[in-house]
Write a structure and sequence with these properties.
mainly alpha, 2 helices
């Protein structure tokens, strides 16, 4: 399972925990859905950033050094 899969499982657990907590306190269903959508939005943005960074870390750059002391 990749990093994004683990991130997705964590997001689902966070949404479930927040939803249950808000329900237990007596918050209305509309506000529970709003809170869940905010959490999912933050998770999608963070997951996209995580995935983008991982791909760019594997990019290899070849740089040739010129020998300026040879006088050519």
């Amino acid at each position: 399972m990749g990093a994004f899969g683990i991130f997705l499982i964590g997001t689902v657990l966070a949404v479930a925990g927040v939803s249950y907590g808000l329900y237990a306190v007596g918050v209305g269903t509309t506000w529970i859905v709003v809170a869940d959508l905010i959490i999912v939005g933050i998770a999608v943005a963070s997951g996209a950033g995580l995935t983008r960074r991982r791909k760019s870390d594997t990019t290899q750059v070849n740089v040739e050094a010129s020998d300026s002391s040879s006088g050519n």
